[in-house]
Fold this sequence. Notes:
Radius of gyration of chain A: 17 Å
CATH topology of chain A: Rna Polymerase Sigma Factor, Chain: A
Radius of gyration of chain B: 25 Å
Distance between the termini of chain B: 27 Å
Shape of chain B: elongated
Oligomer: heterodimer
Shape of chain A: globular
Number of strands of chain B: 0
Strand content of chain A: under 5%
Amino acid sequence: xxxxxxxxxxxxxxxxxxxxxxxxxxxxxxxxxxxxxxxxxxxxxxxxxxxxxxxxxxxxxxxxxxxxxxxxxxxxxxxxxxxxxxxxxxxxxxxxxxxxxxxxxxxxxxxxxxxxxxxxxxxxxxxxxxxxxxxxxxxxxxxxxxxxxxxxxxxxxxxxxxxxxx
Amino acid sequence: xxxxxxxxxxxxxxxxxxxxxxxxxxxxxxxxxxxxxxxxxxxxxxxxxxxxxxxxxxxxxxxxxxxxxxxxxxxxxxxxxxxxxxxxxxxxxxxxxxxxxxxxxxxxxxxxxxxxxxxxxxxxxxxxxxxxxxxxxxxxxxxxxxxxxxxxxxxxxxxxxxxxxxxxxxxxxxxxxxxxxxxxxxxxxxxxxxxxxxxxx
Lengths: 166, 201
C-alpha cells in the first residue's frame, strides 16, 4: 500500500526516536509482549496526535509527553499489572535481559526496586536516567521544578531502602 | 548502589528496533486499542441502531395506528432518543479523552474535568427532558387532553401527592441509573486519573 505524505513525514521524524519510545515501554511493561503492545499503543497515539503538533514544544518533548501519558493512562496494561501477584513483583527480571545486556545483579536489583515505585515516580526516574534537567522534566510532566526535586530525593531514598532490604 | 550508577547501563540498549513489531506504519494500521476503544465502538453502533429502531417504530405507528394506544410504544419513543443522546455523549467524550495536549499533568487534569463536566451535562439534560415530560403530562391531565398519550388516564386516577412521589421516584431512579452507568463505563478510568494526579502532588 502506498504511504501518504503525512505518513512518510511522520515515519521520518519518528525514526530517531524509536529507541526512546522503547525505553518508555521498558519502564512500564514487564514482558516482551507487553512492551510490544505498549510500543504500538504509543505509536498509534503519536500518530493520532501528530496533525495537532504545531512545533510549540520540541519534537522530543511532545513525544515524551504523549509516550508517558499513554503509558500512565493505559488501562489495559494496568489491568494486567493488577493481576500480577506481589511475589512476581518482588522478583521482577529485567525485560528482555539478553537484549538489554544488563547482567549485573546490582543493576537487576535496582531495576526491581524501580518497579516497586509508583507510575509517576517511574516517569521521573526514566527522565532522570535520560539525563533530562528539572526544567525539561517540568516541561514534559507539568510537575513544578521544586516538587520534582523533592520527589527525586524521596525516590532516591526509597530506592536505597528497597535495594538495601534485598 | 545509587540510581546515578544506572545511567550508563540505561543508555546502552541493544534491542533491534528495526524488527517488524516495532515498525511504525504497521502499528498505525493496527487500529486503536485504547481502553476506551471498545466502549467507543459499542457507542457508535448504538447511535446507528437506536435511531433506526426509533424510525421503525414511528413508521409502524403510522402504518398500524392501533400501536399508538400501547403505552410501551410511547415509552420506547421517549426512551430511545434519550439513550441515543447518552451514547452520542459517550462518543464525544471518548474523542476528547483520546486527545493528548500539553504536559502530562495538565492533560490528566483536563481529562478529569471533562469526565466530570460531561457527566453533569448529560445528567442535567436528561433530567430536564424528564421534567418537561412530567410538566406535559400534568398539563394534559389539567386540560383533559387524555386522548393524546395512551395510559394517561391511569396516571390521572392517582392522587396528586402520590403522583408527585412517583415523579420524584423516577428522578431518583434516573439519578441512580446515570451514576451506575457512568461508573460502569468511566468510573475505573476516572479513578485511575485521580490516582495519577495524587501521585503528582
